[in-house]
Amino acid sequence: MMVHKAIAFLRRDFIIESSYKFAFLFEIVTTVFPVLSFYFIAKLIGGEEAQSLSRYGGQYFPFVMIGIAFTQYFMLALRTFANTIRRSQMAGCLEAMLSTPTRPETIVMMSSLYSFAAKLIHILMVFAISGLVLGVRFGNMNVFSAVAVLVLTVIAFSSLGILSAAVIVVLKKGDPIEWVFGSMSSLLGGALFPVSVMPTWMQKIAALLPITYSLEAMRLAILKGHSVAMLWRQLAVLGGMGAVLLPFSVWCFSRAVQKGRRDGSLMHY
Q1: In this structure, is residue 173 part of a structural domain?
Q2: What domain range includes position 223?
Q3: What are the tens digits of pLDDT across the range 76-124?
Q4: Which of 134, 156, 176, 190 could join 210 in a cystine, given CB atoms 3.0 to 4.6 angstroms apart?
Q5: Alpha helices in the chain (DSSP H)
């Protein structure tokens, strides 16, 4: 039953998105262009002499390429649930959508399946261009470790995203969770430079963010071929965050929907 619902949501969103062909192409361009920009920036930096990059193979472009690609994916997990709620509020269909027999949190999660699938295709395109055109080598990649990191990170960020959606149901606009975690993750998570180059007090803040462990583990899995056992610390942190945050965020979202139904504010925006 759940599989049928998931397929129905994917089919619905594919039909909607495919009707906007230019927007789909524009999303691909916005994914690829930053990677190309940093490819030329990496030419200025040099390569092997950066001591802070030695842990990841010593070259800046593969480091930043992975950072950009997966930060975009993780930010999608943070924002897509709240965006789904906001669009439904603006379209006036949120109350009808949440009044179906399907649980509200299930509807919100399945409404985001297409976004995750489409962005994953974009990431694969970035890797293909980086490998076939820009000369990045992925021969050391440990696919199993990379998939494990991806799954645990998506769970952790989706938990924050569901919590963000709960805030939108209540406040309608102005989500502090997305603002805090989105802004801090982009700056402090190590997407563009190693966390080790930051001052100690900033590194302590970075240690509180899931993206710090995600990008660290993803780079080591892809560039250095680290196994799951070698990445146990990062995976344990991500798994722990997901185990705590997911049930809490689902509970918060259910309570927010119940509150909206009681006071009749689900249709407000």
Answers
A1: yes
A2: 2-46+60-263
A3: 888 777 777 766 666 555 556 666 666 766 766 776 777 778 778 878 8
A4: 156
A5: 2-18, 21-45, 60-91, 94-98, 104-110, 113-132, 143-171, 176-188, 200-206, 210-223, 232-263
What pLDDT does 219 receive? 93
Residue type, 239: G
Distance CA 17, CA 51 (A): 44
**Alpha-carbon gap, residue 171 to 190, rounded angstroms:** 31
- Encoded amino acid at 42, one letter: A
52: in domain: no
Contacts of 119 by beta carbon, 8 Å cutoff, 6+ apart: 72, 73, 76
> Per mean pLDDT, which of 35-39, 109-113, 224-228 is the most reliable?
224-228
- Residue type for 238, please? L
What sign does the dihedral 118-124-125-126 (CA atoms) show? Answer: positive
CA distance 100 to 248: 23
**DSSP letters for 130-146:** HHHTS----TT--HHHH
Number of Cβ within a 10 Å radius of residue 207 = 12
Q: Domain count of the chain? A: 1
Q: Quick one: tokens of 231?
A: 């990445």
Q: pLDDT higher for 107 or 193?
A: 193
Taking alpha carbons only, the member of 151, 162, 143, 123 closest to residue 235 is: 151
pLDDT for residue 162:
85
The answer on pLDDT for 191 being more than 70 is: yes
Up-side HSE of residue 40: CA atoms within 13 Å toward CB? 4
Q: Is 219 helix (H, G, I), strand (E, B) or coil?
A: helix
Residue 51 falls within a domain, yes or no? no
